[in-house]
Amino acid sequence: MRIAILEDDPDQLALLTRWLTNAGHIVHGYLLGNEVLKFAGRESFDLFVLDWEVPDVSGIEVLGWIRANLSKSVPILFVTVRDTEEDIVYALNAGADDYMIKPARQSELLARFGALLRRAYPQKDETRLSCPPYEFDTQSGTVRVNGAIVELTPKEFELAVLLFRNPERLMSRGHLQEAIWGHSGDLMTRSVDTHVSQVRRKLALRGEFGFRVAAIYNYGYRLKRTSEDPARVSSRK
Fold first, then answer.
1. In angstroms, rounded to a whole number, what is the distance separating the alpha carbons of residues 156 and 136?
2. Which DSSP string corresponds to 138-200?
3. Is the pTM of this model over 0.90?
4. Which pLDDT does position 202 carry in this prediction?
5. Between 96 and which of 58, 91, 220, 224 could a Cys-Cys bridge form, CB atoms 3.0 to 4.6 Å apart?
């Protein structure tokens, strides 16, 4: 998962980054609230970790901005020294999903992460993904549309599965790049666009089968459900 952390203590930021990186996540760390606002406005993340007390824009202000401008559902975890009941209740009522008091403990942090991510991004079956008329078998790496196998390259298949696991979610090009090619990949933005274009063409993701890949200018892509009924379209073939 792609994680954004706001933490003004470099040592604490490095510690949290190491824990989460070792757990398999891709981490972007920020020392200032304004940095989070800047990058969150043009990049997408699976989860935010916020410290309350930072030098410029506080974590609670960042929380309010995310809920007002980005998403009501993306998980947000506070990790802060503020430990009063009033602070905890205020943050949770403002839209935080969970709250931890420093010093954070590694096992507890990872457990809370796991719980938040499972609730936000449930995956009932790891080997099969069904969004009729699209059927994905992640074990064999195959996809069927109306029962017919469609040939995709391995990266195209990974990209298609990622989009179908996140319908209606706006995902930045950087997010797609890191999720499919890795954090250290040297892939140009144009290559991401090319792969999305191929997936759109091969899987007919232009709305005729109930799903459409929409490009969001200067940001990324969203897999949108359309009003067209896939069964009705199929019956006309």
1. 12
2. TTTTEEEETTEEE---HHHHHHHHHHHTSTT--EEHHHHHHHHH-TT----HHHHHHHHHHHH
3. no
4. 96
5. 91
